[in-house]
Amino acid sequence: MLNRPSLVRRPRAGVRLRNAAAVLALAAALFTAGAVVLDPLGAPGLPDDFAAPSRTEGPGGSGSLEALRERARELPRDPSAWARLGMAHVERARVSADPANYAAAEDALRKSLALQPHGNYTAETGMGALAAARHDFPRALTWARAAVTSNAYSAPAHGVLADAYTQLGRYEEAFAAVQRMSDLRPDASSLARASYAWELRGDAPRARALMNRSLREGAGDAETVFARTHLASLAQDSGDHRRALREAEEGLRVAPRDPGLLEARARARAALGDTDGAVADYTAAIAIVPLPHFLIGLGELQEALGHREQAQTQYALLRAQQRLLRAGGSPPDVDDILFEADHGRPARAVAQCRTTLTSRPFLAVHDACAWALHQAGKDSEALHHADEALALGTRSALFHYHRAMIHRSLGNLPGARADLRRALGIDARFHPLHGPAARTALSRIDSNR
């Protein structure tokens, strides 16, 4: 094997995380000499048999969804044709937020597995991706392990494995899976996952460098849009709102109606004071696909502007959407929990978070649980989850704000002050409602020093 430049460096001893069993450490795993590791030199992908989707062709890669259906009809005994169709439906569900695509995906993937029950790593990887899309991460892990067993050299199988481990809070194993994926195929997909691994560790410059390399390595519009969306998010979450705006607008030149990029531009515009532009972008994104965080983002911006009735319209839409999802058996997501904690019944948010945490002990779920418990007056328990959310060193103004308010309720004013300063230092305009609340809380704590 040729020696290749590293993609990921081993963390310095001084920044290694504490015992992984205690704090779900991410990057303390040691890598063998000569391995490709996740370190900057420069989108989740499909299994090796699948071509990357393009914006012009639509999900599925080598053609539109209808073309893939036609291929499966023409070759009904071809397990690969059914696997490709199944994964295209998974991608369509992700883009459209229409859960009906999940049933179609599962039907196609199970047909593939019926035709080839053993060693069918493309369909096994597809089933893992489908389970992850449904937020059933234990099942995603089972399928990803099966795919890796069927083909240890499939980079996308290791990608789904990494995704499952990440959401299950098994960060060392997730990092190792991204490591292996990058060794096998250092492409846009593995580089994007590497970027996310370092983002979770709080290393924004390294995460940005890797996502920029993912952008350069991307083969089509879909990967460009994915990278630009996440570069905008990285900039926004670091308080660099002008860079976030530039990244979003660069992406929108490629895909003017991409809802994720419209939402990214809305957030940047809101932080820069262009609230009319932000409302327009949120509204446009919701008209394309009413994802929960779009509805919450617009609702909370309207609330911050004093437009109570407009805010309640968005919240009502979200509640109706939640009822449909719960009726379909979908577990509560982080957005659901935080929304219920802030705008509904905190006790219900606590119940939701306990349900979600059992199958998805990811750091964002710990943060949502911390906030729900705080809002419900259970601050001692809340503090444990707030610490878990920040155990990897993730740079999140919202996480630090949540922990600050928990510290304040517990009477730990030095701890509250430190977290408030950290939150506002990361991004003084991190949230239309909580950002001003953080500044007020810090001012009051400092005035009582």
Automatic annotation (TrEMBL):
Q: Which UniProt keywords apply?
A: TPR repeat
Domain of life of the organism encoding this protein: Bacteria
PROSITE patterns with a match to the protein in the record: TPR
In this record, what's one Pfam family?
TPR_16
Whether Ligase counts among this entry's keywords is: no
Question: Could you tell me which residues the TPR repeats occupy?
Answer: 155-188
Membrane-crossing ranges are none
Q: Say yes or no: keyword Cytoplasm present.
A: no
Q: Which SMART domains match?
A: TPR
How is this protein named in the record? Tetratricopeptide repeat protein
